C-alpha cells in the first residue's frame, strides 16, 4: 500500500498522472477514492484522520516493485514508482507523442545529418541525495549502460531485466548506436551516434 498525505480533491485523471499508469501502460488493480478530511482505504480499518489536518489517499498495488533502477526493470509496478522518482532528458507531452524537454531545456536539433545531438541541461536540479545534475552525471549513466566493461554495468538482480531497455539503442559496446557521450561543460552534454537518428 502507498499512502500520500495531504492530498485533497484528486480526480481520476490526476491520480493516473500521479501513478504514472498512463505512461507505463500498467493497469491498477485497486483504486480508492479520495475525500477531504478523512482516510479512505478501500475498507481498511484504522488510520485516523490523515494527520496534520490533511486527508490520506491510499491505494493498493498489484505487487511490490522488482527494482528501482529504471534501466533494469520492465514490470509495470516498478515503472509506476520509477516514473515518479526519475526524470529523463526529454519526455512526452501529456496525452500525445510530442517530444518535450524535461531535464533538458529544449529538444535539440539534429546536427551532422542526425548523428549528433547536443543537450543543454536545466540548472538547479539535484538528485535525491543533493548532488547536482550535470553533464558528467548524464555521461556516467549512458556509459554504464552502454559499456559492458564499465564497473557499474551491473544488472538489478534475478528478477530484473538487466538493461533490456537499452536495446533501443541497438545493443551494448560496439553494437550501440551511441558511439560516445561527451560532457562539453557543466550543463552541456553531446551524444555522438554511429548512424543518423532522425526526429519527425
UniProtKB/TrEMBL annotation:
<comment type="similarity">
    <text>Belongs to the bacterial solute-binding protein 5 family.</text>
</comment>
<feature type="domain" description="Solute-binding protein family 5">
    <location>
        <begin position="99"/>
        <end position="197"/>
    </location>
</feature>
<dbReference type="InterPro" id="IPR039424">
    <property type="entry name" value="SBP_5"/>
</dbReference>
<dbReference type="InterPro" id="IPR000914">
    <property type="entry name" value="SBP_5_dom"/>
</dbReference>
<dbReference type="InterPro" id="IPR019546">
    <property type="entry name" value="TAT_signal_bac_arc"/>
</dbReference>
<dbReference type="Pfam" id="PF10518">
    <property type="entry name" value="TAT_signal"/>
</dbReference>
<keyword id="KW-0732">Signal</keyword>
<dbReference type="Pfam" id="PF00496">
    <property type="entry name" value="SBP_bac_5"/>
</dbReference>
<keyword id="KW-0813">Transport</keyword>
<dbReference type="GO" id="GO:1904680">
    <property type="term" value="F:peptide transmembrane transporter activity"/>
</dbReference>
<protein>
    <submittedName>
        <fullName>Twin-arginine translocation signal domain-containing protein</fullName>
    </submittedName>
</protein>
<dbReference type="InterPro" id="IPR006311">
    <property type="entry name" value="TAT_signal"/>
</dbReference>
<dbReference type="GO" id="GO:0015833">
    <property type="term" value="P:peptide transport"/>
</dbReference>
Amino acid at each position: 500500500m502507498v499512502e500520500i498525505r495531504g492530498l485533497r480533491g484528486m480526480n481520476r485523471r490526476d491520480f493516473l498522472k500521479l501513478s504514472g499508469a498512463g505512461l507505463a501502460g500498467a493497469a491498477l488493480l485497486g483504486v480508492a477514492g479520495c475525500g477531504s478530511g478523512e482516510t479512505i482505504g478501500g475498507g481498511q480499518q484504522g488510520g485516523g484522520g490523515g494527520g496534520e489536518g490533511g486527508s490520506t489517499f491510499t491505494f493498493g498495488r498489484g505487487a511490490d516493485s522488482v527494482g528501482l533502477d529504471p534501466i533494469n526493470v520492465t514490470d509495470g509496478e516498478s515503472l509506476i514508482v520509477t516514473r515518479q522518482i526519475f526524470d529523463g532528458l526529454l519526455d512526452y507531452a501529456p496525452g500525445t507523442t510530442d517530444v518535450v524537454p524535461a531535464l533538458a531545456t529544449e529538444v535539440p536539433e539534429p546536427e551532422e545529418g542526425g548523428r549528433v545531438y547536443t543537450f543543454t541541461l536545466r540548472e538547479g536540479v539535484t538528485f535525491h541525495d543533493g548532488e547536482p545534475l550535470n553533464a558528467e552525471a548524464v555521461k556516467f549513466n549512458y556509459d554504464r549502460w552502454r559499456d559492458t566493461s564499465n564497473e557499474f554495468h551491473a544488472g538489478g538482480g534475478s528478477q530484473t531485466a538487466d538493461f533490456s531497455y537499452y536495446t533501443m539503442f541497438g545493443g551494448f559496446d560496439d553494437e550501440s548506436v551511441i558511439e560516445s557521450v561527451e560532457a562539453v561543460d557543466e550543463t552541456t552534454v553531446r551524444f555522438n551516434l554511429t548512424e543518423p537518428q532522425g526526429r519527425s
